[in-house]
Amino acid sequence: MDNFQIQTAQNVTINQNIADYFERAAAFFIDTLILAAYVLFLSFFSSIIEGSFAIGLIVGLPLLVYNLVMEISFNGQSVGKRALNIRVVCVDGSKPNISHYLIRWCLRLIDIGIAFGSVASLFILFGGKGQRLGDLAARTTVISEKKRVDFSQTIMMDVPENYVPKYPQVTIFSDKDMREVKSIYIKAKNSREYHVINKLCEQLKSKMQIEPSEKPLDFVNTVLKDYNFYTQQ
Could you give the CA distance from residue 62 to residue 35 in angstroms, rounded to a whole number? Predict the structure, then answer.
């Protein structure tokens, strides 16, 4: 899954997950099924529609403006996008306005209407930031709002099969405790903030009531592995 960063006016960096090709294709398929059901429903009244151009235009108009109206009315989501939990946003993270949606909609004829969506597929797969031609022109993209759990946010650690734990006291902690410990440990280690790891080490030692001989960095790593060892048995 690709992602891109948004820098807000308050200098806060927000990571956005770009909806992948298959999510967008599935959303498109759902919307197509809805429109197909609508056409099937209209087929029962074909004699009325054929007899009046005005009526035919009125009942056929939803087919043309479905995506435009849905995205404007439901904050960047059609029924298909809502089902897949994806949404149209501007590349700067802001909410699109009517002009953004209108540009995307106008270019659907090229993106999706021509060659059954092959143009859109090529742009989404190889164009960067998950943008079809309409997105590039409107400076929008489609993001996934599904919560994606990073491995660093879990308690999982790589523990060898022949691993021998050192601290059975780790069982006093909960999974939530270990997730917080691991998150702090990884961030501090990556940013070389060893004073943070030292404080973390002191807190763990106090709660476990032990005096390890290991260095703080190694001790916290051992605690995490020991916890995984005991809780995965």
Answer: 9
